[in-house]
Amino acid sequence: MNRELDCAALLAHPANGGLLHVAGPENGSWAGMDLDPDLHGRDPVPDPGHADPAPPIAVFTTALPDAPWKQDALIRRARDCGYRILVVPGASAASAGARELTRRFDMTLLAVEEPAHCARACWQLEQSSDALALDYVRSVAAVFQHEAADLSGLFRNISSSIGHAASLVDRSGTLVDTGEGLPDGFVDSVDFDAWVTRVNSDEVSAVTVRVQSHARTGIRLVIYDRGLADVQLRALETMAEVVMPAVAARITLDELAALTDASASSELLREFLELRGARNPEVERRMAERAWRTAGYQLGFAFRGIGRADAHSMLRAVSQKLGPSGLDSRVTILDRSAVGWVVLGDDPSAERVEATAARLRAIHDELRRSWDAAMGIGSLQSGESGLRTTVTEAVDAAKVAVNRASAGYRVRVDSLGLDQLLLAWTSNDTFLPAAESLLSPLMNDSQDLLQTLTTYLDHESVVNATAAAMGIHRNTVSMRIHRVQQLLGVDFADPRTRMALHLACHAVLGD
Q1: How many CB atoms lie under 10 A from the CB of residue 180?
Q2: pLDDT digit string (tens) for 72-83?
Q3: How far, in Å, CA of 70 to CA of 412, rounded?
Q4: What is the mean pLDDT of residues 238-242?
Q5: Secondary structure of the chain: what % helix, strand, coil (to 5)?
Q6: Higher pLDDT, 244 or 369
Q7: Inter-residue contact 224 to 165 (CB < 8 Å)
Q8: More confident residue, 342 or 494
């Protein structure tokens, strides 16, 4: 007995002879196939408008006639014989009248380049799922003969060889994709514990297989299209199981390469930050090789795990989100965080800066669906020293954000906050630049305001004691402290503020 199939399954077959929908419904049912049927030698069906639910599909090897009246006659005669789906070479040139007639009769007209291939595809879908699976396996075997540069390249090779889209997913979403994208909610519908699963809906037809990889867990290979029949999905399950080890091996190779690269880039960023303005031709050369430009404006960012989190996994997740974001970014590992910066070029507008920050926040929101992660964003800076500043600020801001649930676990530094300064005290490499940035409004030629503030804090914020220690009038001290508050925008009633300023003053003065 012939298996009932629909037109969409044949259109989705990768070796259907170049089938193209011309007119009529795309989901008409068919069972059986007649190759070059003799329409004139066949008796008409009694009621062609109510033929069997799934009549045979008619595949012709001769081209559609040029004359419109002959096209109409062919369609009418095929209908009288009970056919609803016609596969005809050259049908894409059908007249408007022939197309309209096809639709009026609720028939489907398909154009084909290779009728014999189409006939074979019909046979596979109907009666030989094993042959279909073997064809898929033979096609994908060619993938192993061509070396892919990376995981994305491997998936492109798989997709082109089988004629369907290929994707790699985990519980957080899509990692690699070669098609138009899986529908929303697809990942939630997949059983990640099962070996092989199948999804068949109006939106997508897909098979998934668990990827057995020691480098990455909880990931699945997905082969998908639209309108695939069960026989195609069964064949694709076999093919997916065959190709899965190649995917696992490629993931392992890419993971090793990524770990090596992350180690090298992390060390380079650390060396750059430690230079603090000094020149090092070797560091400059390595930065140039990585296209780490210091010219123009940059905005630093840092993503830090809350609790115990693997920095390399965080880096991979952030990199995957940054890729399609459109941001000109660099990212590596520093201080247990995924740290980087966005290059904004010369004199970016305020709107562009805010749009960049918004994209980083969106990436953070996406990460938090599967990660407990905090994010810090530095201030807009330019040049080599500015890059050091904004990256350092972002790292310190991320440390603060870990404890800022009310702020969505993210902190943005527009002017360096006092909390950052307190945290940075644990690292001399970051504290001094932070302190200098905070107190820069007070660092004029005389440094009277800085000296007064330092003495004032040394004497527990007592004006008379400060005046006596400095040998000046108490009113002068009061005016200077008031001026300090205006310049720094701080509240001396806050003990944390006084402590941060006290530490900063002594660091800047070298005490």
Answers
A1: 11
A2: 999 999 998 888
A3: 72
A4: 90
A5: 50, 20, 30
A6: 244
A7: yes
A8: 342
The widest CA-to-CA distance across the chain, in whole angstroms, is 122
Query: Is residue 215's pLDDT more than 90?
Result: no
CB 284 within 8 A of CB 247: no
The CB-side HSE value for 313 (13 A sphere, CA atoms) comes to 13
pLDDT digits (tens, 9 = 90+) for 410-429: 888 764 455 555 555 544 55
Angle between helices 495-509 and 448-458 (to 10 degrees): 120
The packing angle between helices 230-275 and 383-401, to 10°, is 120
pLDDT of residue 15: 84
Supply φ then ψ for residue 495, to 5 degrees: -60, -30
Distances (CA, A) of 229 to 57, 87, 351: 16, 19, 50
**In terms of residues, how long is the chain?**
511
490: helix, strand or coil: coil
Q: What is the rounded distance in angstroms from the CA atom of residue 207 to the CA atom of residue 218?
A: 16
Nearest to 29 by CA among 233, 227, 204: 227
Give the per-residue pLDDT at 426.
Answer: 44
Identity of the amino acid at 279: R
- H/E segment holding residue 7: helix 7-12
Which amino acid does the sequence have at 493? A
How high is the pLDDT of residue 142? 75
| Best CA proximity match to 410, nearest among 370, 445, 376 | 376
What single letter denotes the amino acid at residue 259? L
Closest to 504 measured CA to CA, from 433, 414, 415, 413: 433
pLDDT attached to residue 75: 93
Handedness of CA 82, 84, 90, 95 (dihedral sign): positive
Q: Are 247 and 168 in contact (CB under 8 A)?
A: yes
Stretch 17-33: mean pLDDT: 86
